[in-house]
Write a structure and sequence with these properties.
Blueprint: E1 2-5, E2 16-21, E3 27-32, E4 37-41, H1 42-46, H2 48-53, E5 75-79, E6 86-91, E7 97-102, E8 106-113, E9 132-140, E10 146-151, E11 157-162, E12 167-171, E13 176-181, E14 188-193, E15 199-204, E16 209-213, E17 219-223, E18 240-241, E19 247-255, E20 258-265, E21 271-279, E22 283-288, E23 293-294, E24 324-329, E25 334-338, E26 346-348, E27 356-361, E28 367-372, E29 377-381, H3 384-387, E30 389-390, E31 417-418, H4 438-449
Parallel strand pairs: 9-31
Antiparallel strand pairs: 1-29, 2-3, 3-4, 4-5, 6-7, 7-8, 8-9, 10-11, 11-12, 12-13, 14-15, 15-16, 16-17, 18-19, 19-20, 20-21, 22-24, 23-30, 24-25, 25-26, 27-28, 28-29
Length: about 475
């Protein structure tokens, strides 16, 4: 295992709230408290040549006095369309589009342009951008900060959640809202779309996880047990599905006195199957690798048993393909878990000086990136003998992007805005807003309203809502 601080990745030394790696592709997107979305070349950031020129790839904490990221050869583009901190960035499944959401209540979708003008045609970029990225859609409707985003498996839809307690489903190609999912009684801080395309999972400060059906947008299940003791002092509750859709990793859970992430199993009707115990403070983000893994083999075809040894635990079923999940915590640490092991493969403590905000996997499946409130981004790389060998073609078929969807290039900036009243969702097999199961959701709200408690709003040291 090798840990490297990516000193070139910076948002003016302000907190980095989110990051995501393009897959397929080789770009890293980051969003921060400087109101910017930045796109980086992963190959330049983590190349072995740069590693040799630096201090042996060792981890160092702290910043230099000047932010030199704007002149870095790894920086491909700076997108300045947000007017407030950017809380989340997510690439579409085919890597063609980049979505972002922030405290300005907007969801933005960008696309790569071959034009030399690119973003500058709108007066939106700054610095010495190498690539041109244009704003393709501006989705408005949330009444408070957008905290998390997730693409549908076919890349035609986006789901967003907000501190207004609501969840919106967007048809990106039509720049319209297809559904508003109401039922949470607290800030919604995490959302994830089932790779099998049956459910959308959301996590909220009301100490519940909700599963919503994608065929009629009705509420399928409300889960509260593992989350009843979770606190409200975290910016995010980012949950994640395994690539085969069998497990849902949910942060901000408790097992007795321990802070854990819990695994909800589809096979057991989403009851808690395992607890991932390894952090001293609340887990705020979980992220499964995009593909499955197997035990690596030697050139002679024999399985390498190095993963069975040592203090990091024993894999239980070595002949079964497994998934890997990364967790980030308020304790400034990151841990890596295999779905077939009761103990973590590794726990990296004190990785940052402040809480972890987001984690993502490298495109090759052999590395993890993490960002923090201290403005740092760290790359953690592994050997296949340490975590397993990524298996080809193990991504669920439903995750294959649709070749038919395409984001239209707007001819007029006014066409970018999808307003609150925009409702056209008749696309693919997903329902339109007219039959989006509003009665079921409304009934759920009515049932829960009697138990509704006053929602507590707290502010961090930087004045941001929690």
């Amino acid at each position: 295992m090798r840990v490297k601080r990516l000193s070139e990745v910076s948002h003016s030394f302000l907190p980095v709230f989110s990051l995501d790696v393009q897959n397929p592709g080789n770009r890293l997107a980051t969003g921060g408290n400087d109101n910017r979305v930045k796109i980086w070349d992963v190959g330049v950031l983590v190349s072995e040549e740069k590693e040799k020129k630096e201090s042996g790839g060792s981890l160092s904490i702290g910043n230099s006095s000047l932010d030199q990221s704007e002149s870095s050869p790894a920086l491909l583009a700076v997108l300045c369309n947000h007017s407030a901190p950017v809380n989340v960035v997510r690439w579409s499944p085919d890597g063609r589009y980049l979505a972002s959401g922030g405290d300005d209540r907007c969801v933005l979708v960008f696309y790569y342009s071959t034009s030399s003008l690119g973003n500058r045609a709108f007066g939106e970029s700054e610095g010495n951008s190498i690539e041109s990225w244009c704003l393709g859609a501006m989705l408005r409707g949330h009444e408070s900060n957008v905290t998390d985003l997730c693409w549908s498996p076919n890349g035609a839809f986006l789901v967003s959640c907000s501190l207004d307690n609501s969840v919106f489903v967007w048809d990106v190609t039509k720049r319209s809202r297809v559904a508003k999912l109401e039922g949470h009684l607290g800030f919604v801080k995490g959302v994830s779309w089932d790779p099998i395309n049956k459910f959308i999972a959301t996590a909220s400060d009301d100490h519940t996880v909700m599963l919503w059906r994608t065929d009629d947008w009705s509420l399928e299940q409300r889960i509260s047990g593992p989350f009843e003791k979770s606190g409200d002092n975290m910016f995010f509750r980012r949950l994640s599905w395994s690539p085969d859709g069998q497990l849902l990793a949910v942060p901000a859970a408790h097992q007795g006195k321990f802070h854990v992430a819990t695994l909800l199993s589809r096979n057991s009707q989403f009851e808690a199957s395992h607890s991932l115990v390894g952090h001293r403070q609340a887990v705020v983000v979980s992220r499964f690798a995009p593909g499955m893994y197997g035990i690596p083999q030697s050139k002679e075809g024999k399985k390498i048993d190095k993963m069975q040894e040592g203090k990091n635990g024993v894999l239980e079923d070595l002949d079964k393909a497994f998934s890997l999940c990364a967790l980030g915590s308020l304790d400034c640490g990151v841990s890596i878990w295999a779905s077939v092991s009761p103990r973590p493969l590794t726990v990296i403590k004190n990785l940052f000086q402040q809480a972890v905000h987001d984690v993502c996997w490298m495109a090759d499946g052999l590395g993890v990136l993490a960002c923090s409130g201290d403005g740092e981004v760290v790359a953690i790389s592994f050997l296949s003998s340490e975590i397993g060998q990524p298996l080809p073609n193990t991504i669920c078929p439903q995750r294959t992007p649709s070749a038919s969807h395409s984001l239209l290039i707007p001819q007029n900036p006014h066409h970018l805005v999808a307003g609150e009243n925009s409702r056209d969702g008749s696309r693919l097999s997903l329902p339109s807003a007219s039959n989006a199961g509003q009665s079921s959701v409304s009934d759920t709200v009515a049932e829960l309203e009697s138990a509704k408690r006053a929602q507590k709003v707290s502010l961090g040291k930087d004045g941001r809502k929690r």
